[in-house]
Design goal:
The protein is 37% helix and 10% strand. The protein is of the alpha/beta class. It has one domain: Alpha-Beta Barrel (TIM Barrel). Strands 1, 2, 3, 7, 8 and 9 form a 6-stranded parallel β-sheet that branches. α1 links the parallel β1 and β2. The longest helix has 24 residues. It is globular, with a radius of gyration of 19 Å. The protein starts with 6 loop residues before the first strand and ends in a 15-residue tail after the last helix.
């Protein structure tokens, strides 16, 4: 039996500089990262306004207030990447400031406090160190140590039990799901079911696939990427795959913004009408610059959600909430948050 309504899932990969440090410098991308400190509260305000539940997958290093705290909390078993630049534990801390006041690029614990204050939000993990599960040299045991630390810091700081996971760089590794299961992770964000989104490591990724993914933002190349309850039930931990990356505003492509919005609305319509799941995701730093343009798009998406909620009972879920509903056959109508708006 299917739930008699569609499900709208949003996951946010919250990482600051820890998520891009191996590819971009502060000089290259610092404005986007600094912008998170205003963009994320603005995002939460919209979520509260439109009764949206979000899963914030947070890099564990962001739970600390200072570099001194981080250095006292480094896992004993570290990722053994062949490419040493992929690990933040190979000298990168020398470039990290002492605390939040001196370094807005690597610290933002107060933003986690804001997430926790906002009704309906879930805190999941984006691993402790922004761990890459397909890169050469690292092992399942190292991944386990990283996730254990991510869970430990969330519990130590806030008493939180982490049950959802988003793989950094979408490097989904099927072999690591048993580790997740053993550690109490009940769901993860898998990749869209198209060859252009198949998980690959840095060496295997290509500019061609990236170009096709960008094109897929505007025209339907990969399908609607909506998922039935039967599909979600096939695995444990529950795979709640991505449907669409909310690609940020690009001035050179602004003439295509109407196509981008129409693609999103069409897919959401399909999920709402067919009682399926639609999973939208992005990073806060995608909204760090061009904020007005990015928030204009987001609000249009959330307005459309509200219309679908009225018309089809399309409902907002966190990742773990949806996983639990699927696992426990809890086909209930969600009236506590995100219910129909009159």
């Amino acid at each position: 039996m299917m739930m008699q309504h569609g499900k709208f899932v949003i996951s946010i990969d919250f990482e600051l500089m820890w998520g891009v440090r191996d590819k971009l410098t502060i000089q290259q991308y610092g404005e986007n990262i600094k912008g998170v400190h205003t963009a994320l509260p603005r995002m939460l305000q919209l979520f509260d306004q439109y009764k949206i539940k979000g899963t914030f997958a947070i890099v564990g290093l962001l739970f600390f207030n200072s570099k001194n705290e981080i250095l006292k909390s480094i896992p004993q078993k570290l990722p053994g990447y062949i490419n040493k630049n992929l690990s933040p534990f190979n000298g990168y801390f020398n470039s990290v400031g002492e605390d939040e006041q001196s370094d807005p690029y690597h610290f933002g614990k107060y933003l986690i406090d804001e997430i926790r204050k906002t009704p309906g939000q879930e805190i999941g993990t984006h691993t402790f160190s922004h761990y890459y599960c397909l890169e050469k040299g690292q092992t399942a045991e190292e991944f386990k140590a990283d996730i254990l630390y991510a869970q430990k810091v969330a519990e130590d700081k806030y008493g939180l039990k982490i049950t959802s996971l988003v793989f950094p760089r979408n490097q989904f590794n099927n072999e690591y799901l048993n580790v997740c299961k053993d550690l109490g992770i009940i769901c993860f964000r898998g990749n869209e079911h198209s060859w252009i989104y198949e998980a690959r490591n840095t060496e295997e990724e290509s500019l061609f696939r990236r170009a096709i993914r960008i094109a897929d933002t505007y025209i339907n190349l990969s399908g609607k990427n909506c998922y039935s309850d039967e599909f979600l039930k096939r695995s444990f931990p529950v795979d709640i795959p991505a449907s669409r990356f909310l690609r940020p505003y690009t001035n050179s492509l602004r003439f295509l913004d109407g196509l981008k919005l129409n693609r999103l609305k069409s897919d959401m319509n399909y999920a709402a009408q067919k009682n399926m799941t639609y999973h939208l995701w992005w990073h806060p730093h995608n909204f760090g610059v061009n904020q007005n343009e990015n928030f204009d798009l987001l609000e249009k998406v959330l307005l459309h959600f509200r219309e679908l909620n009225k018309q089809y009972n399309f409902q907002s879920y966190t990742m773990s909430e949806l996983a639990n509903a699927v696992l426990n056959n809890e086909y209930r109508t969600n009236t506590s948050f995100g219910d129909k708006t009159s």
